[in-house]
Records
---
Amino acid sequence: MNEAVRNPAAPILEIENLSISFFTRRGEIPAVMDFSCSVQPGEAMGIVGESGCGKSTVSLGIMRDLSNIGKIVGGSIKFKGKDMGELTPEELRSIRGNEIAMIYQEPMASLNPAMKVGQQLMEVPILHDKVSKEEAYKRALETVRAVRLPDPERMMRSYPHQLSGGQQQRIVIAMALLSKPALLLLDEPTTALDVTVEAGIVELVKGLGKEFGTSMIFVSHNLGLILETCDRITVMYSGEAVETGSVKDVFDRMRHPYTQGLFRSIPLPGADKNSRPLISIPGQLPLPHERPKGCNFGPRCQHFVEGLCNADEIPMIPVAGHDNHYSRCVRFNEIDWKAEPVNTRKNQEPIKPGAPMLQIDDLKKYYKVAANEIFGGGEGRVVKANETISFTARESETVAIVGESGCGKSTLAKVLLGLETASSGSIKLGNTEIQSTSIDLRDVKTVSSIQMVFQNPFDTLNPSHSVGSQIIRTLEKFGVGNTPADRRNRMLELLDLVKLPRAFETRMPRQLSGGQKQRIGVARAFAGNAKVVVADEPVSALDVSVQAAVTELLMDIQRQNKTTMLFISHDLSVVRYIADRVVVMYLGHIVEQGTTDQIFSPPYHPYTEALLSAIPIADTSVVKKHIVLEGDIPSAMNPPSGCPFQTRCRYKSQVPGGLCDIEVPPVRNLAGGHQVKCHLPQDVFDKMEPVISFAKDKDADPGHGAPGAGPGFVGTPPKRPRGKTASPEASAAGGSYEESEASSRLRREDRQEDRSETGERDLGETEGRQVGWGSQIDDVDAPSPFESTIDERAEDADKKKR
Amino acid sequence: MVEYVGPLSVIFGVLKQFWPVWVGLIVVLVPSFMYKKRLGLYGQLFDSGVGIAGVAICFFWLFSAIFAAQIAPFDPLGQFAIMKDSLPGAIEPASHKVFLFGGDKLARDVFSRMVFGSQIVLIIAPAATAFALMVGITLGLPAGYYGGRIDTFLSFLANLVLAFPVILLFYLLVTPGITETPIPYGMAGLFFLFPIIFFSTLFYTRFKNRPDRLYLLLGLTLVIGGWVYAGLVFNADPLGIVHIDPNQLNIFVAVVFASSPGVFRIVRGLVMDIKTRDYVAAAQTRGESPWYIMLWEILPNARGPLIVDACLRIGYTTILLGTLGYFGLGLAPESPDWGTAIKDASRLLRSFIHPALPPTFALMSFVLGLNLLADALREQSMKD
């Protein structure tokens, strides 16, 4: 039993006015400024914010693991009353991994691949508690059981690579729990995992506080996850905490415009692409050397008042009537928090799907895996990546393809684009069959009419060629324009179309932010007037506020061009927002398809049901049914017999005669074109309840009623011993502090390139670097509600040309 | 008898003799340093001490080679009987010029030979490396990109060459029996084809749809390539400018042959990594030809490691040339190249050490400079 649980009154962790700076060769870069929070025993605190806001630096600062260039320059971190800043290296070592444990994003990087899991686990008690090997083994086994891993003895004997990602993360959590820490730091623990696996981990983490009395700090960019796991939340922006309070207060009665901006830019169940579009936050996170005077969020804030918001540095101001709720905004009493932002585009007409554009019928794609490369002997196995895929996409319709990794959605995209040819079945694009014509045999028209937007913005543009030349090359390839001058004009028009300044023509991709790169990717896909655009998770690697902007852009262009879009994603909240129809895939099969409403309301395929319940939704009024799938996705090399989902299905027992084990279920047509591949009898389907529902009593906000008069509060100025801006040289030299942050955890980043945090940090680095050339990224990443519409922009562009 | 000048005079004499180099270094390095922000990767070298040292040493030897005739006081092959084995600082009675580093056993000026030796090294080593790069890249790209049979076959060939003992290979290639056969010329003919193929493909894939640019560039490639090719392989340059000794051609071919498998492997590995990137998939989905993707999408992004490797490889080649010279392989016995000079001096090492030191030091410093340069380049490319 640890001391903290016995004495619940004293906070486990108290951070007061913490400031952390990174010192590079050319100067100091403040990464965290004036950060305060306290964590009570058994409490979970969430830290949320976009990339580069310093949230990971805070968690590393608590461990005092800031690499050699990071230093705590002000404030104090008190752990159980002891000041961490004054501890000797020996004392620190005895605390790290013992009383404070940390869990990182990438589980494989946290485990030693050369040691068996059991040995690694046993090290913890042997090192910290000096127990015997037998005792250590006993404790390790117990903990492995506690994190609900199947067959603990076998787990202890395995090497990390023999376990799946979810199992590895559970082992990492077990390792952290072994020493019964008083405080657990989780830095994006589920970002690298699939949604259904994530749901399992989240459930495990949630129970920790109750079971072990562990306090937690949960760092994430995902508001939904924070809602599910935490009691209190701190929102960070540009190195500062901007709002902190209980989860309920911050989610329902936020008192900082940035927090509100975040919530408006994520697709919550209420959002709708026609009537309630997402609203992104205009502008970009300021670099450390260009933080404005006063409110850091000022330049991006629609409530900004000259002379008030930028008069002085703003302290954390308590919100009257809320418990322990603080905001770093001087105007929160004057702002009408329920008001819709001005100029919001509203009530667009829903699109009318036209003629079928893409018809896929009974498509199969098998890969042969040869047993032996050189001598060609052996049997060779067959991987069935796609099995009997049939669906139709109409003109100007958005069809979402949903599924977790390994479900065959990327293979489908490859077959559509001609990078692979189908094993059997047919794909009709318009009236031509393209299933067996590979890309080099397709004519220019076919190639240009089916194009793709790629997932990873940092990979989608060739870093060696300028933005303009890459688009021009595409135009050349698609036979657009007759002369180089023609094509250049068309390229500039495309830049207008994706709302980037024409000056970007000569930029190199490294000078662009992630969102901007993704826009160029969109421009390239639409360069040849594509009829069908396959978008492979186009926004999943971007920051929340940028995500909204890119999503809206994609939909605007699609609407204009009447393009058919196949939107591949694992994120059902985005899908619900953007898609007209949804196709759910599992292990190469389409298990369910129908309109978005049909998919998101019962009856469900059991897999869809689990998937729906697994998505974290950042809305306190949502009540979800709780379904956690057992186990992991089976390998496509060795799929289960019968129904692909039978190994994890919770309804399996309700199918008579064990049919699930024997036979692949037939496609069943339910009402209105809704198709499900399942053996379940009709009465079970009829009895299904909705997974997501709204609580009836969505409470009226008591704090909202009358906006108070006058500025909220002017108290003592915040404690910033070193100021808050870095010199431009400093930012340019070391990259920005994100770079240092990144380098301190390089290994993890190397591995997981396509996930948001990593990518983002990458981006931070490029941004910082870019200052060296004296060029500034123009503030275009996010179209704001104040901005003119695409049509107006296009008109402007036309005028300019004349 | 021979008269001597003191050690200080020797040092100042050497510094004075190198004046064209100092001027050259100042002319190049000072502006480079001042405008380093605008000079891309080259400019970034000036951010670190290692980089500056590397660049300076490499330029030092480059200028030495260029201005050898101005720097060296004597003919590298000229013999002055009285100066046989004379110590550093000896004054040649006829011209009253100083043998700054003394004379060797054939009474030639060691200093002049060292300076002229740099010419041979600085022509053969970078050129051979360039050809090895061409061969390695042209074969490594398809091996990495296509994989499968092509890869298996080419990798097997590369392994075969790598597995063969290098020195033995050289012995074979430069023994008179083989030199007289058409084998070296055949191999030269094959290796020198690669640059022409490489550049033709490079331009063809890029400008296929733009005939105006394509014909110009292809024409230029073929004319220049054909001219050099005729001069090097058939020794039939119509203008009489491009010419190479049969001895040197042998060495050249041997060095290219030995180092291209290394380049091949590096390129193959890089391509296998880069071809998984989304921008390659994007190029594929807009219907680019495989060779366009290899040459214009993949190769530019492999340049960082390749540049570093090229620097190191010039160093290896320099050492290789030294080794060959030491074994008396290839180059003419009186050639002033550093390897041969070390060999000549080593026979009398017990009685006179001074003729051995300058070429050794020259070889060492040049390779050190290249290695420093490679290190600095690697540092900088890691930051990108």
Note: Chain B is about 70% helix and 0% strand.
---
Amino acid sequence: MSLLKCENLSFAYDGVTVVSNLNFSVEEGNYLCIIGENGAGKSTLIKGLLRLKKPSAGRVEMGEGLRATEIGYLPQQTQIQKDFPASVREVVLSGCLNRMGLRPFYSRVEKERAREKMEALEILDLQDQCYRDLSGGQQQRVLLARAMCAAHKLILLDEPVSGLDPVATRSLYAQIARINETTGLTVIMVSHDIDASLRYASHILHLGQEGQLFFGTQKEYLRSAVYHEFLGDSAAPMWKHDFPNRLGRPAPREEAEPTETERQVRVQSGKKSSRRIRSGKAASAKPTEAAETAKPAEAAETVKPAEAAETAKPAETAETAKPEKPAEAEETAKRPVAATGTAPELTKGGEAAADAQKISEKSSGKESGQASEKSSGKESEGI
Amino acid sequence: MFHLVIEMFSYPFMVRALLVGALIALCAAVLGVTLVLKRYSMIGDGLSHVGFGALAIASAMNAAPLLVAIPVVVAAAFFLLRLRETSHVKGDSAIALISTGALAVGVMVVSMTTGMNTDVYNYLFGSILSMSGSDVWITVLVSLVVLALFAFFYHRIFAVTFDENFTQATGIPAATYNSLIALLTALVIVIGMRMMGSLLISSLVVFPAMTSMRLCRTFRSVMISSAIVSVVCLVLGLVISYLYATPTGASIVICNMTAFIIYAVIAKIKGLD
């Protein structure tokens, strides 16, 4: 049973729908990042998940184990808090209230819990200082400690690093990731920081003006057309790096090395990709097809050179890939569409993939063997 | 001078005034911290004007003043403190609307019935002589209830003041505690209005909190300091009013202002601003 499940969820303000038809679920231990443009409804969704706002349609279903008193929340800071005369300890302790029922005063248990959280976030030495005298980063850590006191199963973070300098930002993300890894606390985070979201998240929910654009694992998202459209050309450089797991461990290799057909596809479509593999002759072939497939296909294909580059055994794979060409052609064609069944924007990518398939099937009959050997050789040099 | 003070204590009305006043000051001070931090500083003013209107109507109907005033002021407090940010009439303008509206209604009723007499003057500016025996008991009882409830729910009131969204999000019914604050505020305003007057009761709510926040670093110390400052200023103000025959409410407020200035200067010297 999922910890949290949303079905056909919509929210509206004054009768105007701001986010519609969301379908996703969160399991225990997940780290879900909610990303999207401004105005896509991310904060509204968070408020809805916390029951601060009623949905206009659909529902939020909490799994059996989850009650409202087991959820922690790190909201965006309001002006009142910035000038509030309270000590850090008082603020953090206020997160323990949700488990106290009607008991008026904090017991040793709560005080100990608050102390643990403060220690984990390295703010224990600040515990008697006034909240308003702290820097932005310290205030955020105090609020995070408070959220952790309240969070027994799930924590929701609404833009936790807005207004923080890069050092404080990195430190906060690392701490959240560590908490998720070590205690298995489920994390749902709204962030504008794509880089960090992709680095740490296990799942991504991408909201657009039209509604939900993507929901799935981080790996699927990185291969999706939505991701590339969202970031445009700036998506390309990111593929030089392999996103490690949350605490710096490299991500495991899952799929077979799909090097052969992609290179063929790239060769056929020419232009940018040809620069990378430096196979001049083959690159000029079929410019019209290149024009048709245009950006989405290129985007889908730039996925593959990076994977190919980092496999570190392009020569071997070129050989092993030959007999598997048709199967791989289908695989690569399917990949952009495989990311999610719910995203309408992927029809474009789907067409591109179909074209890519056509091209690769054509080329598999021709001098592909030679071209691919050339390109594989050049690629291992070039990249 | 000293023997004058001793003499003062021999008058029952003074003893009543000091006792009741101290309790009211205590209640107003601790509630004031919450209200000031929630940016509802003017609510004391708004509610006291509503109280004035209610008292005017009560005396026109020859009904017991407190019996009419308490429900009306409690209703107004609930209305004002339960307004959410999404409503079209925001907090401060709602207070202004209700405050001036109620005052006008009160003045109208008064002019159509009894006219401006001492009673009405006392409603506006307060009078230490207004405390009868039964009034004292009611006031003491209500004050103790307010203080007990506040102490019992102290941490939750803090949570709701500091961050209402968080409190609601983590499963605590913030609306309930907001209603509680509204109720306690209304009670304090009504019992304090007899002595301080409609126009000046809000000073008891706002001044001690603002004074303490100049210097204090934790919520608990702000509370304790507000309580102490409030009671000290009230007693001083009463004594001055007795000794120099100055209006009571105004004397107390001037003592509060002095305390504020002293704290602000100390804070400046310590470089805390």
Note: The mean pLDDT of chain B is 87.
